Amino acid sequence: MAVAVGRAPVAAQALPPAPALTDPTGHPDGINSGRLVGVMVGTTVLYALSTYLLGKTWYTRRVPFHTFNDNNEWLQMDKAGHATTAYAISRGEYELFRWSGVSDRTAALTGGAIALLFQSTLEVFDGHSEGWGFSGGDMAANAAGVALFVGQQVGLDQQPLSLRYGFSSSIYPQYRPELLGRRRFAQMLKDYNGQQYWLSVNLATVLPVGPSFPRWLNLDLGYSGSGMTGGRANPPLYRADGQPLVFRRVRQFYLAPGLDLVHLVPVASTGHLLLGATQFIRLPTPTLEFNPRDGWRWHPLRAAAD
What we know:
With 306 residues, the protein is an alpha+beta fold. The protein has helices at 33-57, 77-99, 104-127, 136-156, 177-180, 184-190, 203-206, 270-277, and strands at residues 161-167, 195-202, 217-226, 250-259, 287-291, 295-299. The protein folds into two domains: 69-158, no CATH class; 160-306, no CATH class.
């Protein structure tokens, strides 16, 4: 009897692993549970620790909750600071959650919610603090900073407009060091004369330019104030010889090229995370200034405080 000899089955060939999927922003698709847990724990610890320390060191004299209208103080520099801080926290948290693999929309909404939580907590502390109060203007500025980030990220998948912070030491803390800060770090937080807040516009995103146009080039519009030794008005100050010392309070406006270095590194890289989370710090560039006291002024490296 003839026996049919069949062909031996061919061994199955191992297929190469499928490449990681990416979403439209270029981030890998899929949550990294280790990173996500670390980000969530770190954010929670930072929130709890910061609120505890502020309650013990800064907001020590508690009073019943009350409101306070400070919209006319510091030439509205504090409002610009609130908006910029809220934007920076939103973007920083967003970058951390994207780094953990969370979807773009969820990361943007989560970052905005965390920023609003942080800022709202400080406003509640203000509402229970002697000498301050809950400020509706501050809350509106907080919401504006969050809305700028979340609205662009959810609606455009990018940030053509960003808010940034710059600082140059001014001459005014020496006259009221208890209010404006005795050392440089304290002045960076308290001295509105030395702070500048910038709206940075990414030109390649908003203009019809070709692919060779540098995507890292921005146009920065800045705002600051000078001559302020008090919130609404300057208190009487005197020289050593007894003569009155008078400072004129003026608004300052700036125009300068800006740098958006996040476009120089690959999306989803550690460098992209770090640059995205710290982009609120403005790098100095040559700056043109106008203010009604001095007119037009040119600063070769950065906006200098007076």
